[in-house]
Amino acid sequence: MTLIMRIIFFSIIGLIAGIISWPFAEVIIYFQSSFPYLWLFSITTGVVIGLFMGGCFGMSEGILSISREKLIPGLLMGLCFGALGGIVGLFAGQAILGFLGTMIFNSNISFKTIANPLSKALGWAVFGMCIGLSEGIRSRSLLKARNGIIGGFIGGIIGGLAFEYLRLFLSIHYFSRLAGLMLLGLFIGLFYALVEINMAKASLNLLSGDLKGREYPLTQKFTTIGSSPVTAINLTGYNNIEDIHTEITQAKDGFYLTTADSKNKTFVNDDLTQVNKKLEDGDIIRIGTAQFEFKEKK
Asked: Percentages helix, strand, coil for the chain, rounded to the nearest 5?
């Protein structure tokens, strides 16, 4: 999968997440009168939307790498952080509304068309941050967590504004909520992938085998490569590759390839590599029957 296809993939995942979460949110809204408190209804709605959106995004890396070992933990992490985002985002939106509401009224600007949608959109931004954070926590990567927070915030606020203004101006409320949730998911997925790719200082382009043409942005401090499904770059189906064959470390001055204690060695430009080989743009890395081109941004 190329980097462009990766962006499209996460955008589609977001759309699907919005579609899936919509009917369940509608059920909660239908029974709104049964809730004794408005805040309980709001929290329940946020948690339901968060569960389905978080779950979909949490499974994304497992789907991409066809790895059950990533899919199930990612799903569970996504569910937890999605539900958390639904709660925290709600309270953040209400707190911001209390602050902005006073400012907007004092300046005689419409509360309904500016303060309320903007406050709720910022709440959705917090929601997006929680969803984006989940993959960084699962992979134990501060860099991925940072990228997820930034991408989730940008996508959440843009998608949140679209969601809130559709609800405000479209008379068919169930349709506006469907369209709004789809846009919210789409923008979170889109900006998650865009930030991840643009923040990555280098990538690997697979040149051989069944996965030929797939590009991997190096977004972690330590990127493991091997035949095990738990590695960041999974080369199942290639020959002469150990479970965790080698690792690429991101340092302040560049990227270094460290060969693990391997019977099957790693080669860079056909030279046998042992430890701490600094990679240069255009280097060809051979691991068993898999070959990569290392691309570094200038």
From this structure: 60, 15, 25
